[in-house]
Amino acid sequence: MSNDLERRLKELFSADARSRRVSGVRRSPRGPLSLAAMAAGVAATIVLALWIGTALGERRAAAPPTPAPTATLPGVVVSPTPSVVASPTPSTVTATLTPAPSPAREYGHVFTVQPVQPCTSGCRIVVRRERDGSTVFELDGVLPAVSPDGRRLAYWRTTPNIGPTDLRVLDIADPRSDRSVFTVSGPTVGGPVVWAAGYPGLLVITESVERTGGAGGGHCPVSSTLLTVDLTVTPPAMQSAAGRPSACVHTPLAWDPFNSVAAVIGMGPGGYATEYLTWDPRSSAVSSAQIPPGLLLAGSAQASPDGLVVAALEDNLTAVRVWPTRDITKADRYTQPARVGALFWRPAFAAHYEILWSTGQRIEALSHPTGTVSPLFTTAAGAVAIRPDGSGLLLAEGTGPAAGVPSTKLIVLDLATRQTAEMMVISGPFGASHAVIPRGVILR
Questions:
Q1: Average pLDDT over the chain, rounded to whole?
Q2: Which of 43-47, 69-73, 362-366 has the highest mean predicted lDDT (pLDDT)?
Q3: What pTM was estimated for this model as a whole?
């Protein structure tokens, strides 16, 4: 790592570096908006609007990606199924036949049920209606990923006693469109998946079956591979980059094929982020920035719906860092007194990004890059999912044990009306070992 990059990283991760406090925003003199802050009146507004308009317009200006030739990858078999006409798999999809709802748009949420962690058999993915919690359909599988528009689902089907081996996609409105994209075999299993921003493609991690190290031993893959999968061609076109060994687990965050950048966060034992990787699939260039131990929670990191910005919680849960996908060293830092339990991106507005966070006391909206915080709703329930269009949140509230079994009430908060409605009550533990944090989908 160059001396210049080391200096920039020290500045990024200094306790006082470029800090903003959301009650009376405080900016470092060297923050990305310092010039606009020094300007006056209308001039400052124009500069800020032009800067943000350029950032949000990157995708429109960039040329659409050209599908790359399919890479030959050891242990990976690309499925020959056409990418538009999908073959049904009735034996693994259980559909619930109910009358069609009257609203033009209906929301739902994806849950995963895992008897053990990690789950190699008996793992279920359940799509439920938001209005009453009823089941729309179920799948055998793990690691579901919902597209940014909430209309498509990718997931891994498992092989008993081995793990995820068959990557599949389907349309939420038509679960029988379920089809295989590719399979892995031999010493490799599937890992986390994210959808590309504004494009039919996937960013996928595959990992070695062999594990080593980690707290208690045996939790870290010996190797991992990062794949881009272009679903616009048949068979799907794939490119790969070998994972670096310095992280225990790699998690994909974003793939912006229009600007040719993919981002991955590396996690060490304990869940802390250890490194941030960016990859240019066109040039195969990979850049890495080391993250000081104990600073960021890797599991909290998530990209904006357009893939241009990433946010993550600090370990103390009282600060959020937001940075351009290409460069973590340009992060902005927002702090607030209460501990943040969860954060979610809303779809981009005309002049800013918006992050919703819950503190166990209230739901608030943070505007980026201005740092403005607006209270939305007072509640002790924690937010666990957001609708794909940002119009509502799913909240979870513990209701205490019944007959010795804990239960959780799921509540829908409509952000336009500030009205709540109960979705359902889940009996049993609500967490990674039972119902992984739900993801919002659009059913119709």
A1: 79
A2: 362-366
A3: 0.79
Question: Residues 170-204: pLDDT tens digits?
Answer: 999 999 999 999 999 988 999 999 999 999 999 99
Judge if 277 and 159 occupy the same domain.
yes
Which residues 6+ apart lie within 8 Å of 382 measured at CB?
341, 342, 358, 360, 395, 396, 397
Domain with 215 in it? 3-127+134-338
pLDDT in tens, 148-159: 999 999 999 999
Calculate the alpha carbon distances from 162 to 16, 114, 119, 317 in Å.
46, 15, 9, 35
Q: Are 349 and 240 found together in one domain?
A: no
Q: How many domains does the chain have?
A: 2
Specify the amino acid at residue 370.
T
Question: Average pLDDT in the 240-251 region?
Answer: 76
Residue 431 to residue 171: CA distance in whole angstroms? 26
Residues 24 and 164 reside in one and the same domain:
yes
**Per-residue pLDDT tens for 346-356?**
986 656 899 99
Closest CA to 348 of 230, 173, 198: 198
Cβ-based burial of 16 (10 A; exposed 0-12, middle 13-18, buried ≥19): exposed
Given 338, 360, 380, the domain boundary residue is 338
Contact 172, 151 (CB under 8 A): yes
Q: How far is CA 68 from the centre of its chain?
A: 25
pLDDT of the residue at 189: 94
Q: Are residues 189 and 229 in the same domain?
A: yes
Is pLDDT above 60 for 322?
yes
- Examine the domain organization and report whether 141 and 19 are in the same domain: yes
Residues 374 and 328 in one domain: no
